[in-house]
Structure formats: structure tokens, C-alpha cells
Amino acid sequence: MPIEGEEFTRRLLTPLQENKLTMLLRQGADVDLILRLVASELRLYDGVQSGVYLNKPRDAKGYQLFRQAVLHLSSIQDKNNLFVEPLIFDQHWVLPAESLLVEQMATLQKEYRIEYQVERKQIMLSKRVIGRIFLTNYDPASLSNEERIRLQEEADQGADNDVSVDIRSGYPGGEWPIHGGFRLRSFHNVLNFIGQSISDDPEYAVAKHPQTPSVSENPAYTMGLLVSDDESAASDISVRFGDWDYALKPEIGYQWNREGFRLLCQIFQMTMTDLARQGAPAITISK
Fold first, then answer.
1. Model pTM score
2. C-beta contacts of 139-148 below 8 A and 24+ residues apart
3. pLDDT digits (tens, 9 = 90+) for 146-165
């Protein structure tokens, strides 16, 4: 279904939300490949490396640390120690008992746990809250309720397209603690990043961080492309645009470029929403 105007803006120019990233990660996709595609920068909040590090090859310092950080997350994922979970915590509110009528109490009981504190003549309302997504090297449920609330308040200071990361010492991969967040970009900017990597702003090899264990995959390009004016040189996945043929670079072993292309297709589908198809018949296919 072609898209244009407001739909184009909303679907392709709006930054991706954290739930789309986590959906891909929970399907077993490579965290470093996903973040190299959809994240525009890494923001570190504390420590000696606080600052903003761009996923942009021209920013040599920022690009190097960004690449090292996602590769470090990949090493944690390889050992099945990367958690992609929402913060779940109990929120409490205290109200004077005389401020609520019986009818109001009955209404609140539908959504809140109510505890009447007789001596203090007050009522405590409690509610289980599902908060922001965090990438961690520990189970967030192991934290105290107060610590989870603190992390939630910190995450709420960021944008809706930020995904928080909290890699702590004392857990797998904690040799290099990382505390901050990745800022996700729009699908349009993902395509721009890939296109610019062809010649305008090419990517390059970045060695892993000294504290990161060995990893099996660390290609220079997020998605390696071949550009040729000879159609016969194209691979089995190619497209012709103007006078040029664009194709995925062939690989031996793990098909990183093919996986990146598959993820790109999935991310594009995630930008689509159900539209009302006026005048189109409803068709039911029975089993």
C-alpha cells in the first residue's frame, strides 16, 4: 500500500520506539547489528566516559566508543546474560483518610491496593507499574523496589525513543560498566546511514574494547553493499536504480549482510500500521 503525506511522515520520519527494538531482541536478533542499524548515538550518564557518542564514522571518537559498546553488549548476549526487560515496581501514594468518600474508595479498589492505617488515619494506595525497557547484565527483578523506581525516574528524563542500558560490575560483562541510553532514529535515517556508508561517510573496522572478551562477528560495515554498472556482477539479492546495480556483498560463514537486510525489512514492516480500507471487501480464509 503506497504511503505519502502525513502517513509517510508518521511512519518513516518518526523515530522508532523502544518496544520495536525489544521485539526484535526477544526474537534472538543480534544486539550489535540492531543497534548499529537503528541507534544514532549512545549517551553515557556517569563515569569517566560521560557524554554523547555518535554512530557516525566522521565522528571518530564517538563512533569508536559506540561500536565498542554495542560489541560489548553482543559479548554478553552471546553468553545468554543480556536481559531485555521492563522495570516492574510498586508505586505508593499516601492520602488522609478523611479526604476520600466511601464511593471513591470503592472506585479506587478496582485499580489500586488499599491499606488503611488506623493509627495514622491515612490510606496507602499501591499499584504495580510496568515501566521503561532496560538492557542489563542482571535480572532487574533482583533490585529493590526503590532502586527500580530510581532507574525509572532516570529513564523518564530521556526521550520516548531512548532505550536505557545498565551494565553493572559484579555481573557477566561487568568488567566494563556502561550506564546510559541509546537514542533510536527513524527508518528514513536508517536508510540514509546505509546510503552514506557507500561513499560519503564509509564505515571502518573498530577493535573491541580491552575489557570485552573475544567475539565472533565484528564486520566493518553495518550492511556491506556492492555498487556496479555491470548487472552480471550483482548477487542474488540486488536492485537496479538509474545506471547502477546495488547488491549485498557475498559472505562466507555467518551471513551478516543478509541478516541485516532481513532486519531492515522487519523494521520497515514495524513502521506500518493497520489502515482503514474503505470500500475493500472483508475476506475470511477458513482452515
1. 0.84
2. 139/83, 139/85, 140/83, 140/85, 140/86, 140/87, 140/88, 141/85, 141/88, 145/89, 145/90, 148/87, 148/88, 148/89
3. 999 999 999 999 888 999 99
